Amino acid sequence: MAQDKTISEILENIVGEPDAEHQLIYDSPSDTLEPIYFWILDLINGMFSGNVEKLVDNFASSHGSGHFSELGQKATRMQDEAMKILGAINQVLKSIINILYDLREFEMRLHHYDDANSSDEKIKESGNIALKQIWMDNVDIKKGRASINNLSTAELMFTTLRDAFMSANSVKKADSLDLNDRVKRILKARLSEFLIWKETSEKELRKRFEIEKTYLKSQVGTLQLYTRWVKPYLKTATLLEMKETKSPELVTAFNTILLELTLFAKKPIKIEEEALQEGTLPIPFAEMKFKRNYYYCMIIDFSFRGIPQRVTQRGDYTFGGKTTISFKAYAMNDDEIMLLKKKLEESDFEDALKLADMVTSESLETLKEQIDYYLKEKDEEDLQ
Fold it and tell me: What is the C-alpha separation between 367 and 381, in angstroms, rounded?
């Protein structure tokens, strides 16, 4: 159950040896750990004005004990529920990716319609040419040998039809072109079809674009809801995992449990008050300006070895055994406390919570820019 690096080792590298250290050992198979822990917690809360954090909360049970089986079953239930919600998260995430792909396609197509409706003749011409190409490739091509592309081949002798279609933007313009009557009749019919398609398809595409943006918003909301649901299950499942240990106190066939708890308490040092009123610091300190805040700090380590005893049918246990409590006092500044917490994050103290945050909080990070682009655009339209 030992960590990659204990808090004592980390603190020794940061601030050196503790200024004071005391140890309390209480061994009673009949008395439980909870009253001892909460009495000390309340005492420390009073001394440090409630500035108390829990840094470590580890346990390990002997594999042959009933306590090991009970917690294993609870962890499995939490894992099953988490996996169900994670499966739903994956489906919603795939849906969001597909919606973003569709929105990009719609936006590119709508850009052609915007160009075709431009007041600038050059931009309008390029937009119409792009739309005509789309219409020939996706709509007119379904006519088979009667399509413009096929009729324009030398074999069918309508070689001027395609160029005429690309240059004419109205039936009136088609009449003014220097073409034979056979080509003109086909050209005007296809041009009329294209203009109807252009008007109706633009309306439908803009409507579909707005519907997709609304659907994207609902899917993002669903994903956020699922991530809130899955976090408690992931955290509970990982926190119920027992820590690996090679301690000789944990024997497979015994009914034994080992617990480790570490609390960190801090209280600001009022330098002027300490120097002038309490006399614990030299008087000149009251006139000095310090770049950092300084704190009284205490590390309280609980190390417990006991025998779990089941007291209810639903699986509640009490623990009686030997408790070793160490109190270590330090004087630390802001930078040292920040460095301590950073070192703890780099070790495996918070692995249980890192998994949940990795799976849930970062799900949309790579897609955030695109999602914000479409959703902000939608929100601005709603406000107008």
Answer: 22
- The overall average pLDDT reported for the chain is 79
pLDDT of residue 342: 81
- The predicted model gives 290-302 an average pLDDT of 87
Comparing CA positions, the residue from 245, 244, 257, 329 lying closest to residue 33 is 257
Residues sharing a CB contact under 8 Å with residue 249, sequence separation 6 or more, in sequence order? 256, 258, 305
Distances (CA, A) of 382 to 110, 271, 371: 20, 56, 16
* Confidence bin at 246 (pLDDT 50/70/90): low
Beta pairing partners, 295: 268, 332
Mean of pLDDT values over 291-318: 79
Q: Where are the domains of the chain?
A: 7-62+254-346, 86-231
Q: Who's near 358: CB < 8 A, 6+ residues apart? A: none
Radius of gyration of the chain (CA): 37
CA dist 311 and 74 (Å) reads 17
**Sheet hosting strand 20-32, strand order edge to edge:** 20-32, 317-333, 294-310, 257-268, 52-61
Displacement of CA 261 from its chain's centroid (Å): 28
φ/ψ bin of 16: left (φ > 0), alpha (ψ from -120 to 50), beta (otherwise): left
Evaluate whether 66 touches 255 at the Cβ level (below 8 Å): yes
204-218, 276-290, 353-367: range with lowest mean pLDDT = 353-367
- With 0-12 / 13-18 / 19 or more C-beta atoms within 10 angstroms meaning exposed / middle / buried, residue 93 is middle
Residue 382 has pLDDT above 70, yes or no: no
DSSP 244: P
Amino acid at 359: V
Alpha-carbon span 48 to 298, nearest angstrom: 9
Give the residue-averaged pLDDT of 257-285: 78
Task: Describe the chain by its helix, strand, coil percentages, rounded to 5.
Answer: 60, 20, 20
Cβ atoms 322, 306 nearer than 8 A: yes
pTM equals: 0.57
Contacts of 321 (CB under 8 A, 6+ apart): 27, 28, 29, 33, 257, 304, 305, 306, 307
